[in-house]
Amino acid sequence: MPFVIYCKPNSDKLIGIFQKNDNLFEIDNFEEVGFAFVSFDGKKKYLIPRNESDVYIETISEINYFIETKIDSNINSNTKIAFENLVKKGIASIQNNLFDKVVLSRKESLEIENFDFEKSFNKLIFNYQNTFKYCFYHPKIGFWMGATPEQFLQSSENRVKTVSFAGTQPYSESEKYIWEEKEEQEQQFVTDFILDNLKKYSTEISFSKPYTFRAGNIVHIKTDIEAVINFKNDFKNIIEKLHPTPAVCGLPKEIAMQFIIENEGYDRTFYTGFLGELNIDFATFRNNKSDLFVNLRCINIENNLVNIYIGCGITKGSVPENEFIETVNKSKTMKNVLL
User: Fold this and answer.
1) In terms of Cα–Cα distance, which of 109, 84, 144 is closest to 270?
2) Predicted pLDDT of residue 109
3) Rounded CA gap, 176 and 75, in Å?
C-alpha cells in the first residue's frame, strides 16, 4: 500500500502516513489535504490523502547511525565526458542568448543487493538533521527516498515563505567560504525570479541577505523570503508560477525546461519536483498549513538498481569540469547512506 515516512528539518518527530488502499489520487487545485508528490514538469501531481490514510507519529530515539566515509572515488571517464559535453552545450546556448541560466543533471545507477531500507533511512535522519528526510512509496509510482535541504513553499493562512537556493561548495570545518561571482550571480537569478513572481500576488514581501547554509557535506548560498498574499486562492497560482524555480530548472523557465527535456538524455520524473504536507500540519492536524520541499539529494529504487540524481546550475561563467565535480560531491549525500 502507498505510504510516506518523513522527518522535518531539525525535528525529533517521525511522521508516517499509510494509505488504506492502492488508489492513485491526483491533485486538481491544490486545495486537497494530504501529502503531495509532484513531478519536475508539474504534469504528475499526486497525493496521499488525509481522509484515506492512517497517521502515526513517533519521537526519534537517540541512536547513533554515524556515517563512515568510504565512498568509491573512482570516476567513470565516459560519464564525466558526457556530462561535461552537456554543460558545454548549455554554456553555448547561454552565450547565444537562448537563456540566462539552466540547471543540468545526470542519473547515476548503482546495483545494490539486499537494500537495507531501515538502516539507510536512519542514516539520513541522524546525519542530515537540517534537511527534510523522507521515504515515499506507491505501487503505481515507485520507491523514493531523500534528504533535501531546499524548502519550496511554506504557507499558513495568507502568509507564505520560500527560499532562494544556489551555489555549492564542499563543507569545510574552518567554515570560511569565498563565493565566486558565478555562484553569487546564479543565486541572484533565483532570488529575482521568486520576488518578481511574488509581487504579482503580494504587496508585503521581505527577504534576508544571502548567507551560507550547510546541508550535510556541502554548503550553499541561501536567502529567506516571506510574503503576505492578497488572496488565499492565490496559493495555487504561486505554486504554478514558482515551480520549477531557476534553482532546479533555469531562466527563462519554459525555454530552460525545454532544453533540459531535449538534452539531458533521461526523464527526471520526480527529481526536482516537490513534495510535502499540503493544507495540513500532520504533527498538530491543523489545516490551512502547507510545508513543501524540492525533491533534491534523492534516489529511487527499481528492482536491484538504485538511481541517484544530481545536478548543478549553469551560467555563462561555468567551467564544465568544475560542474561535474560538483555533481560528484552532491552524490555523496545518498551514497553515504547506501554503502
Assistant:
1) 144
2) 92
3) 28
Task: Provide the residue count of the chain.
Answer: 339
How many other β-carbons are positioned within 10 Å of the β-carbon of residue 185?
18
Q: Measure the CA–CA gap between 54 and 173, rounded to whole angstroms.
A: 43
User: CA–CA distance from 173 to each of 61, 170, 217, 218, 334 (Å)?
Assistant: 27, 10, 10, 11, 21
d(CA 250, CA 313): 8
From the list 250, 140, 138, the residue with the least C-alpha distance to 193 is 250
**pLDDT grade for 166, boundaries at 50, 70 and 90:** confident
Q: Which residues of 40-79 are buried (b: 16+ CB within 10 A; e: fewer)?
A: bbeebbbbbbbebbeeeeeeeeeeeeebeeeeeeeeeeee
Cis previous bond, 244, omega within 30:
yes
Q: What is the pTM of this model?
A: 0.91
More confident residue, 185 or 49: 49
pLDDT band at 159 (very low <50, low <70, confident <90, very high): very high
Q: Is residue 24 very low, low, confident or very high in pLDDT (cuts 50, 70, 90)?
A: very high
The span from the CA of 293 to the CA of 133, in Å, is 10
Domains of the chain, with CATH numbers? 3-338 (3.60.120.10)
Helix, strand, coil percentages, rounded to 5, for the chain: 25, 40, 35
Neighbours of 193 (CB within 10 A): 23
* Cβ-based neighbour number of residue 192 at 10 Å: 13
50-65: pLDDT as tens digits: 999 999 999 998 766 6
Could you give the count of Cα atoms lying within 13 Å of 328 in the half-sphere of its Cβ? Answer: 17
